[in-house]
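Input.
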Amino acid sequence: MNSDPERRKADAETGDTEAGDIRGTEAPPSRERLPDARADGRIVTLSIAPDTVCFLIGRLREYDALDMAPEPAEESSPLDEEDIDEVQDRGNAYKADPLYQELATFIGDLSVDEKVDLVTLMWLGRDSLSVADWPELHREAEDARNARTLSYLLGSSMAADYLQEGLAALGFSCEDSAEERI
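Output.
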């Protein structure tokens, strides 16, 4: 497997991620049990439905598109020209946004197993792995599980892409989903 388990574990523990008009529906999808994913002759049982992941992908893309901080006139450190309190207030504006609140509630309401599956899907897509890697990735995600799934997902500007690639590796597509339109 060409992935880095230590990097994934460290990312999940610290909430750190690598850097890098789509909208979901107004109502979150129902939480029905996902049918087994079949890919490469392997069967993977998920705890989270693809429509739920597609809904989240759409919302994450919408969140990533938010531009609450004004662009500086020139390249400079924000602390060169602003008070630290102003910088913190700007960062806190994201947490006050209704979309952030929706994501926080939605992700917070997911079961532990669903959150583990989300992180596993993200890693599967990020590292361009195959369904054969799912069992090991899932064990690593279970071992790295913590209460920071929301900050981990929102901390990666590529989370929506990684989740979509993870679903694709399992044979699912959001293009057919009513939850996200590409």
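The radius of gyration is 17 Å.
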